[in-house]
Amino acid sequence: MIALVAVAAFLIGFGKSGVAGTLGPFVTVVMALALPADEAIGLLLPMLIVGDAFTVTAHWRRWDLALLRPLVLAAIVGIAAGSVVIASVDEATLRRVIAVAMLLFVVAYAGVRRLQIAPERVPRYAWVAGGSAGLTSTLAHLGGPPIVAYLLTAGVAPRTFVGTSAAFFAAINLLKVPGYAFAGLLDGELIVSTAWAWLLLPVGVVAGRLLVDRIDRTWFERVTLALLAAGSLVLLVT
Predict the structure, then answer these.
(1) Which parts of the chain have pLDDT scores under 50?
(2) What is the residue extent of each domain of the chain?
(3) Contact in structure between 156 and 64 (CB atoms under 8 Å)
(4) Are 35 and 132 in contact (CB under 8 A)?
(5) pLDDT for 60-75, tens place per residue?
(6) Cα separations (Å) of 13 from 3, 126, 229?
(7) How far apart are CA 107 and CA 105, in angstroms?
(8) Which of 35, 163, 200, 209 has its CA 20 to 30 A from that of 54?
(9) Of 170, 182, 175, which is closest to residue 84 (Cα–Cα)?
(10) Residue-wise pLDDT tens digits, 140-180
(11) What distance in Å separates the CA atoms of residue 183 and residue 177, rounded to the nearest whole number?
């Protein structure tokens, strides 16, 4: 398990460097295949929060507060709903919820850049995007497609796009802590015993930044999505 946590920490850092938006969900599925689903998402949350610190620092003040505010407010509602779900279902059901959410993610991620939404509808869509991202992020640490779709339709500059999404996920990961604690997903002993693996988070960030311009992102994401779909199917039937 220690080796798995170390690999997860490295991949989280690698993904936070901007290499691909599919690595986070992939890590969640791999962890859920090796550990009980509740332990997996509980163990990943503090690592994601540490990874967010690197991302937000790298893109400090590049976010757009006018875009960010309604997204976070809506996400609070989604996080509350997701917290109720994870506190109410057993581990086997949570595994299936994660698997189905991941399969939907694969479909959504593959098609999200083809979405066309009229610009005048973007402010209204912010509540849908933020709420759904808060819900799916709470259930399975994935909230990318609705946020990517929203920011794409908002027509923001690339730096603002990255800075706003980084700030959004940093905020909602922190907001997920009370719900996870209430549901009993944060095992302090397990987290402390694997905390040394977090040293690989900055290693992953550095590796990602060195390789970001050398990787064919299209093929990288296709391979990751295929592995994610396969892992989700295994998670669903086991």
Answers:
(1) 119
(2) 2-237
(3) yes
(4) no
(5) 989 999 999 999 999 9
(6) 16, 27, 22
(7) 5
(8) 35
(9) 182
(10) 888 877 887 788 777 778 888 888 988 999 999 999 999 99
(11) 10
